[in-house]
Write a structure and sequence with these properties.
The complex is a heterodimer of chains A (123) and B (106).
Chain A: E1 3-7, E2 10-12, E3 18-25, E4 34-39, E5 45-51, E6 58-60, E7 68-73, E8 78-83, E9 92-99, E10 110-113, E11 117-121
Parallel strand pairs in A: 2-11
Antiparallel strand pairs in A: 1-3, 3-8, 4-5, 4-9, 5-6, 7-8, 9-10, 9-11
Chain B: E1 4-7, E2 10-13, E3 19-25, E4 33-38, E5 45-49, E6 53-54, E7 62-67, E8 70-75, E9 85-90, E10 96-97, E11 101-105
Parallel strand pairs in B: 2-11
Antiparallel strand pairs in B: 1-3, 3-8, 4-5, 4-9, 5-6, 7-8, 9-10, 9-11
Classes of the chains: A mainly beta (123), B mainly beta (106).
């Protein structure tokens, strides 16, 4: 069974940094592209970033480009999101999400989601 | 950027009703569209991908159709477990979600 478990969320001041992690199990992590999707309170879902299986292709939403960095460690079955220069509008539940198609060089639909980790940016 | 617009934003329905949700793209996305169901406090669940392909394990009362810029999600006979918020997602160019449609009890 596919299992994705996020960690690293919490309360951070505007301008601060946070690093999210996602531990994956139940599938061959190194074969799949992975993504981060967020859900701000009272708003809809927003795709944040994607990384291909070998980290060759990396994509970001315009809203986080230059501030967030996605990475992965296939030896540790782990996905990461380094978030810098955080703003109030980055407050959201962040989901670690598996791409539904393998192999993939572009973004696809998302077939498995973690339970999410809450990031709150506030002074 | 491709914008996705869902309608309606809220839909009031009863158990047994046929429910249809529409999603429009600001430009053609071929059939690169997925639908998700989300309940409060839970992660979204994939229902449909490539406009009309039913994800494994999803009940057959859910169906999707459309291509280009206009798509629909249909629930043929609404069940108590189906009251939730539904999102469409385009993955033709990067990825964008619609704003969501909440299906509530009439």
């Amino acid at each position: 069974e596919v299992h994705l478990v996020e960690s690293g969320g919490g309360l951070v001041n505007p301008g601060g940094s946070l690093r999210l992690s996602c531990a994956a199990s139940g599938f061959t992590f190194s074969s799949y592209s992975m993504n981060w999707v967020r859900h701000a309170p009272g708003k809809g879902l927003e795709w944040v970033s994607s990384i291909s299986s070998t980290s060759t292709y990396i994509y970001y939403a315009d809203s986080v480009k230059g501030r967030f960095t996605i990475s992965r460690d296939n030896a540790k079955n782990s996905l990461y999101l380094q978030m810098n220069s955080l703003r109030a509008e980055d407050t959201a539940v962040y989901y670690c999400v598996r791409d539904g198609k393998v192999p993939a060089a572009s973004i696809n639909y998302f077939d498995h989601w973690g339970q999410g980790t809450l990031v709150t940016v506030s002074s | 950027d491709i914008q996705m617009t869902q309608s309606p934003s809220t839909l009031s329905a009863s158990v047994g009703d046929r429910v249809t949700i529409t999603c429009r793209a600001s430009q053609s996305i071929n059939r690169w569209l997925a639908w998700y169901q989300q309940k409060p406090g839970k992660a979204p669940k994939l229902l449909i991908y490539k406009a009309s392909s039913l994800e494994s394990g999803v009940p057959s009362r859910f169906s999707g159709s459309g291509s280009g810029t206009e798509f629909t999600l249909t629930i043929s006979s609404l069940q108590p477990d189906d009251f939730a918020t539904y999102y469409c997602q385009q993955y033709d160019s990067y990825s964008t979600f619609g704003q969501g449609t909440k299906v509530e009890v009439k």
